[in-house]
Amino acid sequence: MQPLSPVLSEARRIVIKVGSSLVTNEGRGLDEQAVGQWCRQMAALVREGREIIMVSSGAIAEGMKRLGWARRPHAVHELQAAAAVGQMGLAQMYERQLVSHGLGSAQVLLTHADLADRERYLNARSTLLTLLGHGVLPVINENDTVVTHEIRFGDNDTLGALVANLVDADLLIILTDQKGLYTADPRHDPAAEFVHEAQAGDAGLERMAGGAGSGIGTGGMITKVLAAKRAAGSGASTVIAWGREPDALLRLARGERIGTLLVAPTRRHHARKQWMLDHLQLQGSVRIDAGAAAKLRDEGKSLLPIGMTAVQGQFARGDVIAILDEGGAELARGLANYSSAEARLLCRKPSAEIAATLGYAVEPEMVHRDNLALLD
Ligand SMILES: Nc1ncnc2c1ncn2[C@@H]1O[C@H](COP(=O)(O)OP(=O)(O)O)[C@@H](O)[C@H]1O
Ligand SMILES: N[C@@H](CCC(=O)OP(=O)(O)O)C(=O)O
């Protein structure tokens, strides 16, 4: 047996994506038994302190079955109608199964526009982190009924990767109908060899995964390989594994090497920091006092409004801003929770006064420490 992998066993925040063919038993109808198995394992992982987010496909396949359609329609409005019908069944099934294993559940439907817009991105992130903080397991799908064709994620592999980026996950697990990635599509090439491990983003992987999908799902392996590359951008590694492998999730979380592991070349904090440092054009900055600077630098704390002494420039919630020390030297960069206009009103105010000052409070921090990169 291969040695245990710390990339797997040390992952605290995990996004788990399951594809349509698994969830709907190859299109025959929701596979509640399989979903029950994953829910049991996810509940056990949450109890041991891991944070789990699920991305589940299957709405269109289940909707087609409920509507009695044998073939996948091409018209977008028909796909959207099927998704609306099927999503009801998906959500009910997850809720039933998660509750039976003692977990609260929440449905989150996202579109591309939600993640492209800075403010909605931060809102989605806050909501998901709040749900995790309450021990509730979010079950995400694309909001198929409102998206137009051009801006669909289409496959949920991409959505899984973007969610992993959104919440700074350590690991993305993609469960599918194959044991993992092969050097060619095993449905068509009996000589295809299994790939145990590779580096996420390796161009050779994209050539191996060129073939189409199962016919039930939309992506095939190529979207999984590209999802791994995307997830690696924020430092998350990806595992592609067979969803019917007994106790796959528990075994992976113990570090067992099942499936294909696509390792992110850079670790999480480094990748995020690099992303912020790569922002050449900052919209503005906040100046902070010596006490706040020490909290950020020495204790790894968030920046609270009380430590801010001045605000320069024009920026919106979600923009990357510079954080300057008393002398004006750049100390850190981070994502602003409040716009420059709001921040000006919040300077030197305790967080308890944010709501009274602005009429609302989004977060107690000006920049949360998870969204903050200290300069060396
Ligand atoms: N190199 C490859 N290795 C494994 N599977 C491949 C490869 N290339 C194409 N595939 C196909 O991708 C399918 C999985 O993708 P898909 O049907 O979209 O699943 P899901 O619904 O889980 O997202 C497999 O059944 C397989 O036929
Ligand atoms: N949002 C869609 C997912 C589309 C899809 O087929 O995804 P996948 O099976 O993950 O390739 C649904 O729920 O049907």
Task: Quickly list its features.
binds adenosine-5'-diphosphate; Archaeosine Trna-guanine Transglycosylase, Chain: A, domain 4; 15 helices; 376 residues; Carbamate kinase; single chain; binds ligand VHF
Write up this protein.
By secondary structure, the protein is an alpha/beta fold. It folds into 2 domains: 6-268, Acetylglutamate kinase-like (Carbamate kinase); 279-374, Roll (Archaeosine Trna-guanine Transglycosylase, Chain: A, domain 4), CATH 2.30.130. 39% of the residues lie in helices and 19% in strands. The chain has helices at 6-9, 20-23, 32-47, 59-67, 76-100, 112-116, 118-133, 156-166, 203-208, 220-232, 248-253, 268-277, 290-299, 340-346, 354-358; strands at 13-18, 51-56, 104-110, 136-142, 171-176, 197-199, 237-242, 260-263, 284-288, 308-313, 320-324, 330-335, 372-374. An 8-stranded mixed beta sheet has the order 3-4-2-1-5-7-8-6, with helices on both faces. Strands 10-9-11-12-13 form a 5-stranded mixed beta sheet, sandwiched between helices. A hairpin with a 5-residue loop joins β11 and β12. α8 packs parallel to α10. The mean pLDDT is 91. It binds adenosine-5'-diphosphate and the ligand N[C@@H](CCC(=O)OP(=O)(O)O)C(=O)O.
